[in-house]
Amino acid sequence: MVVGEINDSAQHWLSSYGTARVQLNLNDDFSLEGSSVDLLVPLYDDKKSLLFSQLGMRNKDSRNTVNLGAGVRTVQDNWMYGVNAFYDRDMTGKNDRVGFGVEAWTDYLKLSANSYLALTDWHQSRDFADYNERPANGYDLRAEAYLPAYPQLGGKLMFEQYRGDEVALFGKDDRQKNPYAVTAGINYTPIPLITIGAEHRAGKGSRNDSSISMQLNYRLGESWQAQIDPSAVAASRTLAGSRYDLVERNNQIVLEYQKQTLIQLALPDQMTGSAFETIKVDAQVTAKYGLERIDWDSASLVAAGGMVIQTSSQSISLKLPLLWLAIITTP
């Protein structure tokens, strides 16, 4: 009897561990780019309300990204409503952002919306020389549905948009201004442990791509037999069976890029002087790779009898001629 109580306690403790998911993606180039692992851990659950944390890690475009989130879900009648917040960290490129999401789920249907806000400002890009990068601000709207008569088969529809002049929604080498995309996909879950999916994404300017994915969905605390039982798939599509499902959002940070100003020169707006007076002109120069020299156009001044003397790489002295208009302006 004591052993039975211990087993019951252990089972209850393990079941509170939530859901783990490992996703293996296969893209157009037959690469595993974009694969990931995520874990949802319940912190408090009274069957009416659920407080949880969600952790994730992924690799894409040779960047390692970590996601840390928390959320609340509550059941009202036949719907479950949720809110969540995430902190996303691009460990490789040192980019940070936050995200906020809302959820509305019922049997065989999931609706959600997410927003993404940059925390990191412009800084040197690791992808391109002479470019800055930062997270792009954006949002997405998602819907997932399953067939009640055949719950192994499901579909997905998503709209997403990001703001910025050079946003890499379709990859760092295909940047667009304020890009958007619509994604449609289907998935098949023969047993609770495995989900196979295919998606096609079409966006602004006729951009498009496709991907095939395989997910390993492991519900911690459930028996191995339950993980591979085909008849258990139907229960996972109901509200009661999906309360520990992971938050669906874009865990990969979409980046915006900006061409750096490599060199910038500024001169005084206006200078005045008398005939035969010597005026010093200093150029204010900002140059990423340093300044070798400035070529001054002084032909008209010299032709009028004036003189130009180079005093440094960024300064000259002007000796004004007798009949020179002693007001010098710059655009």
Automatic annotation (TrEMBL):
Residues 4-251 form the Inverse autotransporter beta-domain domain. Belongs to the intimin/invasin family. GO terms for cellular component: cell outer membrane. Invasin is a protein that allows enteric bacteria to penetrate cultured mammalian cells. The entry of invasin in the cell is mediated by binding several beta-1 chain integrins. InterPro entries: IAT_beta (IPR024519), IAT_beta_sf (IPR038177), Intimin-Invasin_domain (IPR051715). It comes from the Bacteria. It holds the Pfam family IAT_beta. PANTHER family: ATTACHING AND EFFACING PROTEIN HOMOLOG-RELATED, ATTACHING AND EFFACING PROTEIN HOMOLOG-RELATED-RELATED. This is Invasin.
